Amino acid sequence: MMLRNRKLLREAGVLGLNERNSEFIMRLNPRRFYPRVDDKVLTKKLAIDAGMPVPELYGVIGHQSEVRRFSDIVGDRESFVVKPARGSGGDGISVIVGRSKRKRDSFRFASGLLVSGAEIEYHISNIVGGQYSLDGNPDTALIEYCVHFDPLFADVSYQGVPDIRVIVYRGYPVMSMVRLPTRASDGKANLHQGAVGAGIDLSTGRTLRGVLGNDVIDEHPDTGALISGLYIPKWDFILQSSARSSEVTGLGYVGVDMVIDRDLGPLILEMNARPGLNIQIANGCGLAHRVRRIDEIFDATADPATRARISRQEFPAERQGTLALSD
Amino acid sequence: MTTRYVLVLAGILTLIGLATFIYKWQVLGLPLDASQDTPIWTVETTIRFDSGPGSISVNLQIPTLTPGFATLDEYSVSRNYAFGLNYVGADREAQWTVRRADGVQTLYYRIVVYEDQASDQADLTPPLPIPPVIDEPFRTAVDMVVADVSDHSADAASFTSVLVRMFDDPSPNPNVELLLAEADSRADFVQTLTTVLASARIPARVIHGIPLQEQQRQEAPVPWLEIHDGDRWRFFNPSTGDETLPERFLIWWRGSEPLVSVEGGSNVEVHFAVQRNYIDSIAIAGHRAELKQSRLIDFSLFSLPIETQSVYSVLLMIPIGAFIMVLMRNVVGVDAFGTFMPVLIALAFRETRLLWGVILFSVLVALGLSIRFLLERLRLLLVPRLSAVLIVVVLLMLVISIVSHQLGMETGLSVALFPMVIIAMTIERMSVVWEERGPADAMRAGAGSMVVAIVAYLVMGLPWLEHLIITFPELLLIVLAAVLLLGRYTGYRLSELTRFKAIIDK
User: Fold this and answer.
1) For a designed S-S bond to B31, which of A91, B91, B281, B452 qualifies (C-beta 3.0 to 4.6 A apart)?
2) Is B379 in Cβ contact with A9 (below 8 Å)?
């Protein structure tokens, strides 16, 4: 059984953690470039310099003594997001979507829960103390624009903001999925926190099947809406922005996370030097074959737009063979 | 490319490790098995005699070249006597002298040997013996015997066999009868054989030895026949003519000299007593290395002070734990907290034993977690909160120790060395995972850590493995090589085979 699975996975080109770590991350992602993606403040700055769209940064708190600047930074804004600059896997992110009508000092989470300003300050203090940082060292808290998500996803997400992850290999987008928050994931778009992942056909930008945990699903667990068959707007723009990430970060294997704002369109939230492998389950397809194809056609002189176009030609969903389309 | 370097490096490490290991095992004889004790034999010679009026000098033949045995120690016990060793050719004599002595004198010579097949005799090829001058009528008898035996034999060995059988014939021919007329003892009998062999130009001599048996007292050594066939010395049983040596035959001396000669004494009695003991094979190996002038054993763990040794006996097992960790993480794919935390927990289990360790660890972490959630409400900064958890853990351990002592469970006390910092860190990490990813993930990682810790504990506690690593620390080079190779392992983890099942299932 085990051996048969191993053989089938190999044939499907499924990438394992060991291979990802040694053949992709260690080979293509030089350690010195890690801060560019691990530190969200730096990522944002680099992205802005490169002309990539990002959510507006309201303020940065880098020290315990600055925590009380929180209310100055937020000012009168109704919604905002607090996140650690060097958090991992979406840990420590708080999304404030509004305020209490009676008390301006009371903030509302995406879940509807009301919290006081003091509680948010405590959360920021924890972030600065390093509770969520990758290495446990003191960290910086970002307070930034809260994305108003596109109504397109209203039926297939439970609170929170769905985000789109594109895996970019040597500058070429090779695989993509949309991550849909669920009740279980507490509005967060992280697969291991219980969000649903749905593969996206690179050539058309249409969603494929969904995956929850390691299981394939067709409907959103909370809303019951069909996950497949949605067309992601501005797909070409999303792929081009993602493709640009290799120039911006210097990394050869990177996961680019984007959100689609109702008003501002696609925005880059963060980039990841160690993107997870569940995207393969969401696409019902392994990464290895696509990566090999990129190695064959790799052209160092191609610009991001060209690379995005080539990826759209090379990786249509029909070619995946093992795909289980529900329509 | 990198893979090739890793392969080469791992190959070199394995080679060095294996070579050193095999050298220490095969040549120095370090034991593979912890319980392996080597038998050692103590042979004691007691010389008792009545002292005469004048000065006394006692000479005793003692072992020199002992094929199949190596000497561990030798000494004499003799009050008031001056003791010395004389080298007579290739042989040795012990000599005791004293100017005056009264009454019955007792001298002891003791030698401690162990079996060592490698200890071969380094005796040189003797010159061809000059035909001995023998008076008539023996001359003729010898010549006739030699002529007779030569007809029935092909070489030195078969000559010896035929000759011995002829001598052993219960109804010997007249020539043999004549030659043996004056042979009173077995030693004389063998001596006569050597004379005939010398006439046939075969180098031969009597050897006197003691067959080592578990415990015995013996009056005299057993004489045996040794001949040289031009190539090497060969042993013949003087009673049967078979080429053989008694089992565990310690050759005491060679030649026709008497075992002991006492000047200035009378009524000499000599006894041999053999005693078998067992000692640690490692001591023997150390001695052997000394003999071979090998420096390797000087650089081994056993040259360190005992206390340091006991620390290393724990430290040297940590690489094994780390190896288990690598296997569990990268090949099996178990979720666990921290990189080496499970190994440290496994070390703690050594103090508490497994069952108690698991219970204790679970209880402490569970209690600590609930305290941690209480502290969460107080909104403490990270480091003070961690410290608070640590202090609570220490207090909890104290309470558990006291309670278990009151209940008469002594194991509770061994808690003292349980790594509380590790527990505090576990609690902290677990609570963060708990909050961020939910209880399921926290429990899974916690259980994973526990499983890895238990496996690591069980493997690190294997007595034979522990013995192997401590005796042959170079084996860790092989572990290192294996870890390097696993570092380049790009195959699936076992857990991924089920994790990605959805991709291959239609």
Assistant:
1) B281
2) no
